[in-house]
Every structure is written in structure tokens, then in C-alpha cells.
Specification:
It is found in: Cytoplasm. By secondary structure, the protein is an alpha/beta fold. The chain contains 12 helices and 20 strands. Helix 2 packs parallel to helix 6. The longest helix has 18 residues. The relative contact order is 0.16.
Length: about 425
């Protein structure tokens, strides 16, 4: 049995939550390994909707261990609120089935405020963040001035660490003509969070190593998508962490040999939230139809997502960068009823056709999609659970996508419901 890593293969919002939840039935442990509460996963199970931001999607299944790894930046108050909300929906969350890495970096109010200030200060530098403080928290992590979860367990040692943190942030605040923060204010913020989150902390790298050695199956859950990777995405319009599959090892504390099968999640079309290039974006009636039928609004912010045709060039690239073994294709039902469907098979850049997404910000903004037109279908794919339930032309579309991206389709999702899934190949058995 292979451990499985699930990553977004586009710009996020591909439907990872449902797929992770669906796969978690065969897993013993589900690990979130990067990002923060800027990510959102929506699960629909027996008509009940669960909205998750920090918690791994496996929490809604009984008997599974859920882990928030060291690669995640954690807002302790947001985590406590999310635990409370899910508990109120009948989900059992205890220190026995939820563990949070003791070396995870904390997101504080100073990070949220800085994030919002930067986004609102200059039209030309907006990235389109959720203003949740994720980027500034990662900056403090690599700047070696972060407060980590384990620090809350020894409150008397916090003040020198807060002083080091504020020597940086108060200099920035002076530049924004804002009052400086006091050590006491940050101390009180952290002290109030400590009793809410400390029961869940653990040396998760050690726990995961023990579970792996015991033969438990581990499911690694990524947030956002590969095109938002801070190294390999549409920089600078990216998130602040590595979102590709390799981060599963670093962000959980397990080595690269712990990764078995890499499953990429991709919609049957493409969406993006926030600023940045989007070669196949549609601003016409078709784009609006995709957004309405696909309910394309962000789980965390409620922002409408930009919609466009499937981009095979970008997906082929992310499949290589993440070492994707198979793709779970989601929201096929949103394409039902279209007379024709277009797929991007190349880009035109300054009069030349290319077959990769260039790294340059300027080049990314100038690429134009080269389309192939595929016949649509009049039947419905919604709720299909086998190939026999799909219209013939829908199957042809899936097979053509498979050819263009150079990667097999191993799962097809036809609605938000857990059971409405066509299994082609089981990642855990591969």
C-alpha cells in the first residue's frame, strides 16, 4: 500500500477536500502539510456541508488520526474557532484524534494587519491575498524571528522572543505611520490562545514516523494549487509556501521515501482567485455560466472565482513538477449542455507557439491560448458513479484531456457528494 499525496494541479479550489475525504476511508492518518487558513475545503456528506480551513479533511471520518504538520502556519485563535465550529456540527475532535506540530509557526494579529496594509497600500502591488497573515508569518519563519506553537507551553520565555519579533514589525509600522505594538499586547494575545491549542500539540514528525513504521497508510493533504507555488507558480501572484508534492516530506517531517503515489486534482475547466495571469480566462457568457453552474465562490473569502477553459499546457507542466502519477478530474458535470468545449493545447508568445508556461512575469501576462475545440454533450454527467453512466462524448473529452496532459485520469468526480465518484485506479493500491 502506497502513501498518497494529494495536491492541487491548477490555481487551487480544484475540489481537493472531497477527494481527500473520499480517499481517507482507506487511510489511517491524514496530514495537512503547508499553507494556512487562507485555504478552504468544502465537504458535502449526506447533504451536510462542512467548511474547513486548517483542519485536514479526514476529521469528518471516525477512527482517523488528523495531523497539522510543521509546514503549516497556524493562527491559534482561528484553529480554536474551527475546532469549535466542527464540534458543533457533531464532528468528534479530541487530543487523541487531532495533533498539531509543536514546531509549527504561529500567525498573529500583527501578521494579519501587515497583510491587509500591503494589499491596500498600492494598486500595482496587490497579489490578491486573503489578508489572513499567511505571507508575513512565513516571512518571520524564514527570518528566524517567529513564535512557534511549542513556545506557548513556556510562557515565561515568550517576552524576549516577542521583543525580537517586534524589533522588525515596529520598524515596518513606523513606515506605515502606525503606533508601535507593545510586548504586553502580543503576550496577552498568545497567553489567551495557549490553553485552547496546547492540548493538541505533539512532536508530529516522531508520531508520523512511528505510524509509518507500523504500516499505517498516510494521506498527505496539500492546500492551494501547484500554479500558486512560491517557486514554480505564476510568481509573484502566488502563495507564500511550496504547494507541490515535494513539500509533503518537509512539511510533515517525514522523508521523501514516505511519498508513494502523487494524485493531482484538476477541474474539467480552470478557475483562479485573486490577481495574476490566467491565459484561458473567459469574461463572456460562457465564463459566467461556468461560475454559476460550478458555484465558483471562495470557501474562505466568498470571492467569485475567475473561470476559463481547461489549460492542458499548464497542467502538463504542474504534473511534471509535482511528479503526479494520476489526476482526479472534478466538476465534469459543470460542462454538461455545452455545444462545444475548448481546451488550451499551446500558447502564442510574441508570435511564436510555445508549450510551457514561461517563468517571466511579463511573458506570462502576454501569452495567448491556442485552442482545440471538442464537441460537447447534451446528456448529464451529474451524479455518475461509473463510466456506463457518462455520455459517450463526455468520455471522449476525459480521454482527450488525458492524452494532452500526458497523465492518466484515475478518478472522476461528478458532484460535491462523496459517493458521486468514478474510480479508475485506486491510488492506495497502485
Amino acid at each position: 500500500m502506497a502513501n498518497v499525496v494529494v495536491v492541487g494541479a491548477q490555481w487551487g479550489d480544484e475540489g481537493k477536500g472531497k477527494i481527500v475525504d473520499w480517499l481517507s476511508e482507506k487511510a489511517d492518518v491524514v496530514v495537512r502539510f503547508q499553507g494556512g487558513h487562507n485555504a478552504g475545503h468544502t465537504l458535502v456528506i449526506d447533504g451536510v456541508t462542512y467548511k474547513l480551513s486548517l483542519l485536514p479533511s479526514g476529521v469528518v471520518r471516525k477512527g482517523k488520526l488528523s495531523v497539522i504538520g510543521n509546514g503549516v502556519v497556524v493562527d491559534p485563535h482561528a484553529l480554536a474557532d474551527e475546532i469549535g465550529r466542527l464540534t458543533g456540527q457533531g464532528v468528534e475532535l479530541t487530543p487523541e484524534n487531532l495533533k498539531v506540530a509543536d514546531n509549527a509557526t504561529l500567525i498573529l494579529s500583527v501578521h494579519r494587519e501587515l497583510d491587509a496594509l500591503r494589499e491596500g497600500s498600492n494598486e500595482g502591488t496587490r497579489i490578491g491575498t486573503t489578508k489572513r497573515g499567511i505571507g508575513p508569518a512565513y516571512e518571520d519563519k524564514v527570518g528566524r524571528r517567529a513564535i512557534r506553537l511549542r513556545d506557548l507551553a513556556n510562557l515565561p520565555t515568550l517576552r524576549p522572543k516577542i521583543e525580537r519579533l517586534l524589533s522588525h514589525h515596529n520598524a515596518l509600522r513606523r513606515g506605515f505611520n502606525l503606533p508601535e505594538l507593545t510586548v504586553d499586547s502580543i503576550y496577552e494575545e498568545l497567553a489567551s490562545a495557549a490553553p485552547k491549542v496546547l492540548p493538541y500539540i505533539a512532536a508530529t514528525w516522531e508520531l508520523l514516523d512511528e505510524r509509518a513504521r507500523a504500516g499505517d497508510r498516510i494521506l498527505f493533504e496539500g492546500a492551494q494549487g501547484a500554479l500558486l507555488d512560491v517557486d514554480h507558480g505564476t510568481y509573484p501572484f502566488v502563495t507564500s509556501s511550496n504547494t507541490t508534492a515535494g513539500q509533503a516530506a518537509t512539511g510533515s517531517g517525514l522523508g521523501p521515501r514516505s511519498i508513494g503515489y502523487v494524485l493531482g486534482i484538476a477541474k474539467a475547466y480552470t478557475t483562479r482567485v485573486g490577481e495574476g495571469p490566467f491565459p484561458t480566462e473567459l469574461t463572456d457568457e460562457v465564463g459566467r455560466r461556468l461560475g454559476e453552474r460550478g458555484h465558483e465562490f471562495g470557501t474562505v473569502t466568498g470571492r467569485p472565482r475567475r473561470c476559463g477553459w481547461f489549460d492542458a499546457v499548464a497542467l502538463r507542466q504542474t504534473a511534471r513538477i509535482s511528479g503526479i502519477d494520476g489526476i482526479a478530474l472534478t466538476k465534469l458535470d459543470v460542462l454538461d449542455g455545452l455545444d462545444e468545449i475548448k481546451v488550451c493545447v499551446g500558447y502564442e508568445l510574441d508570435g511564436q507557439e510555445i508549450h510551457r508556461l514561461p517563468a517571466s512575469q511579463g511573458s506570462q501576462a502576454r501569452v495567448k491560448p491556442v485552442y482545440e475545440t471538442i464537441e460537447g454533450w447534451s446528456g448529464t454527467t451529474a451524479g455518475a458513479r461509473s463510466w456506463a453512466d457518462l455520455p459517450a462524448q463526455a468520455i471522449k473529452y476525459v480521454r482527450r484531456v488525458e492524452e494532452l496532459i500526458g497523465c492518466p485520469i484515475t478518478l472522476v468526480s461528478t458532484s460535491p457528494e462523496r459517493a458521486d465518484t468514478i474510480l479508475v485506479a485506486d491510488p492506495f493500491e497502485d
